[in-house]
Amino acid sequence: MTATATTPALNGRSYDDITVGEVLPELEIPLTRTLIVATALATRDFQDVHHDPDLARERGSKDVFMNILTSNGLAGRFVTDWAGSAVSVRRVKIRLGAPNYPGDTMTMTGEVVSRENGLVEVKVQGANSLGSHLAGTVTVAYPAASEGKDA
């Protein structure tokens, strides 16, 4: 089954139902040590600050912290979980701020900022107890979206 402009995108949002200004449901992501270490290693980021607490502290950090590739992936996941599995991620553009440390929670929030020619851009923010961890945009493309019906 493929998504069209009028059918839900495989358990997600229909392109025609999306409006600029729409707010995505919050997503809380528990920041476990396992998540931080495993995703760093899975992305082939072997920097010791992402998996060795003692060396991370030697380098001035309070503990290991999440790498940027994981943050990028979580930003994309946040939007695709809302949009549906039929969309493809076209662009993730984020800036990092406060580190994500084990034992905290990152809360993802988002808002649709544009919708045109099958593309939807979502402004995203990921915050933890220290403040903003990530901020930027994620752009996804809907297959077979209505051309010329954009508001």
Report the count of strand segments. Answer: 5
Radius of gyration: 17 Å
Provide the β-strand percentage band: 25-35%
Termini separation comes to 27 Å
Average per-residue pLDDT, rounded, comes to: 89
Strand order of the largest sheet: 1-3-4-5-2
Q: Can you tell me the overall shape?
A: elongated
Question: How is the main sheet built?
Answer: 5 strands, antiparallel
* Derived structural class: alpha+beta
Q: Specify the number of helices.
A: 3
Helix content: 10-25%
Q: Order of helices and strands, N to C?
A: EHHHEEEE
Model regions low in confidence, pLDDT < 50 over at least 5 residues: 1-10, 146-151
List keywords for this structure.
single chain, 151 residues, alpha+beta, five-stranded antiparallel sheet, 5 strands, elongated, disordered N terminus, disordered C terminus
Structure description:
A 5-stranded antiparallel beta sheet has the order 1-3-4-5-2. It has helices spanning 33-42, 53-58, 68-83, and strands at 23-31, 88-96, 104-116, 119-128, 131-141. Residues 1-10 and 146-151 have low confidence and may be disordered. With 151 residues, it is an alpha+beta fold. It has 3 helices and 5 strands, in the order βαααββββ. 21% of the residues lie in helices and 34% in strands.
